[in-house]
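Person: Please work through this fold.
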Amino acid sequence: MRDESQIKLVPVRAFSGGTARVDAELAQNILAAEGVECVLSGDIAAGAILGLQVQLLVREDDAERAAELLEAYFDTTPGSAAPED
C-alpha cells in the first residue's frame, strides 16, 4: 500500500462557463460510479465568473482510465454511429 503523502493528483478535465460546477460534479459522479476516486479543485464561482475553471483531479495511476470514461460520456454525440474500421 502506498503512503498517502506519495499520491500524486493530476487534472484529467477542466470545466468552465455557466455550467462548470454542475458538469464537474456530474463527471465526479461518473468516475465514482466506476470506482475512480477524484476531487474537484477550483473556484465555486466558476459558473458565475467567466474565465474561472473547476478542475477534476484523479490519482496519477487512474488518469488514463478516467480520461477514457469521461471522453466516452462527454465527447460522444447522441445518435452518432460508431466509426467503422
Residues 15 and 24 are 6 Å apart (CA to CA). The chain is about 30% helix and 25% strand.
